[in-house]
Predict the 3D structure of the following.
Amino acid sequence: MATYQHRKNRFTDQIQTFADYKNIWLVRKFVSQWGRIVPRYYSGLPVQGQKRIALAVKRARFMALIPFTK
Amino acid sequence: MAVSQKEVQSSVSEDVREYELMVILPPDLTEADLNTKVQDLREALSQHGGKVLNEEITPVRNLAYRIGKFDRGTYATFHFSFAIDAVQELEKLIRIEMGVVRHMIVTCPKNYIFKGIMAYEEEAEALRLKESEEKKAKDNEAMERRNSPRPVAPRPARAEKPSEVPASAANVAPKAEAKVEKEEAPVPAPKIAPPRDALASVPKADLSKVDEQLKAILDNPDISL
């Protein structure tokens, strides 16, 4: 999970154009232990990257790939 | 002729777009039922000039949460091109007639390369393995470094300590002296502490003198502390 100490612009190649909701491994990286989307302050993503990730998380939640809450 | 072909192509590409459909099918279907359902979906996607480009059907998986009465399901994903105007109809068809647990149609971004859930999972597993191996190698290296004998540098010989220093005298004397010097004159106090031998040799009679001086300073109304 992304934390303040680890905030870096990582996974740039996975979210260059879009973040895939089927990539559960990637989506889980940007979800807190309670299942909430990690804010940009912690994730260290650029604005567009954060938007892509947020969309991917929401799609993955809807398709029951990751839980809404834990 | 070439121009007209181009025009036709461009008009087609405007009307058709790439989409991705993901559905969750009930887990209790027999293999034949599953196949017929997938075939139905394929046929539905082939209407209106649609074309299935890629597809993936996973084995029965656990859902992250219960949907209706199901907590397991089969994920079927189709990457297809479809007429833009007809997508809503397709969505309605899938919702009403296909008997799926859940479905979602999303538009694909430009230059989209299809990759299914299983492919991503395999990739993630490979990454995890690689990471764990790297960590192991790092740990081993650290252990080796810890276990290997350090290069021992020759220690400088210690100076012998003066024996039997009266502790009370050593503690009291230098403090009092320093205070006195500070108060009486602006001469900077010597930064280097006097050696212990010298402290030991301070006679007690001197201390009483110092006490008197101190008291005089404290009683002096001109000096405010």
Observations:
- Chain A touches chain B at residues 17-18, 20-26, 59, 61-68 (CB under 8 Å).
